[in-house]
Amino acid sequence: MRRARRTSKSATTEKRNLSKEKKQQTGSLHSKLRGITMNMQQEAQFFVVEGTIQAMQISSGSVNLIEDIQNGAFWTGVAAGVGGEAGVLANSASLTLYDGEEVEHMALLINDRLAIGTFEWLRDLMIDDDVKLVVSETDAGPLFVHAILRKNDQLLWTPLCVNHTRRGWMLHGVKLGSTGLLGMILMFGSIFVLDEKSRPDGPWLLFGIFFTIALISFVVFMSTASVIHQGDYAEKIFRALGVPKADRFQIKPYSIFNLHFEHAEEPFKKNHIYQFSDALYAHKLKFNLP
Known about the structure:
It is a single chain. By secondary structure, the protein is α+β, with helices and mostly antiparallel strands. The chain contains ten helices and seven strands. The chain has a five-stranded mixed barrel. The longest helix has 30 residues, at 2-31. It is elongated. The relative contact order is 0.11.
């Protein structure tokens, strides 16, 4: 009996240790995700793959797509054509996908090639949809998807925060700074209408004005500098899709969230799904492009 209890305790301890090791490995992998994805955005060569979706597995942001792949959910009915690559895809997914409640992960098969990516509200995509993917190669083998354009309705999926070019983010910073300056004018303007007794002395007033201007400038600079790489990322996607003058392309006004807020299902989850054909038409009309 004692030996049986000792064996049971040792087995339980081993299971706990294995579970801890697995959690540590998963945590260390996810801690590398954003840095690796950033390198892919900056260094990878983007190209387009066109075809129909042959198979697809989608997991919500709070569910681990890697476990679904390893458990075989994605490979049911597909393994005969791409057998032996489940481990490769799982390893690649662990290094390139990032987690979050607002996103969904996908693994799909197109032209007998495996591809992975992270987007909003992927459940609108279906098997047999005719799509154009903006992708790049990964060291592990599967393609990494940067954008999805469904041909029949021209809906475009992009990653989170990829909705401005570099010029767009700069204009966003200018608008942010202008709002701050307007607030400063209103604040100090109200000071001048106060009684002379309540009004601060000249040196202190000047110090307050200059300090506020410096603070606004710093906030605008830091907020723009932290996202300017996303503008470069967006331009690479638009160029791959054949958009002329991609650095001037404006896609954000044509999101499902902005266009069909009242009628769309879960509109708050469709802020990065766009009506690409409408945006491209307006862009060409604005710049008189063929």
